[in-house]
Amino acid sequence: MPVTDVRQDLDNLTLTITADFAAPVERIWQVYADPRQLEKVWGPPTYPATVVDHDLTPGGHTTYFMTGPEGDKHAGYWQITAVDEPTSFAFVDGFADSDFTPNPAMPVSENVFTFAEHDGGTHATYVSTYESAEALQQVLDMGVIEGASSAINQIDDLVAA
User: Which CATH number characterizes residue 124's domain?
Assistant: First the structure.
């Protein structure tokens, strides 16, 4: 399993996931840069993602939805804030209505994903920062740790294919 550590910090409003992959940084970068590859790993196995739009450039947007086992759809968006290809990117991630309008009733996180060479593979750090301890607790209660970990753990199979 690529995920090696998960830390939640209600004082600093962060959730940090670290993972190690047996693939070079450039290959892991492609997973996030290519919308068809991103679809295979953004949602957990029981909630696969469909990426509708994907522009991994500063100021760019990504829209997606995840489809649950009962056919229920859950939309979300990214607003890309920074890109340093192939080592990091930052984005705002939020929940959206079915037309991809941001849902202000749901938590929003600022995210920084970084990828560094490590023992011939890649060490990835995923940091999500929330607006409040309540927002972080809300996503924790929704199962973000289990969902994000199972999604990230799909990357090994994708890059091995």
Answer: 3.30.530.20
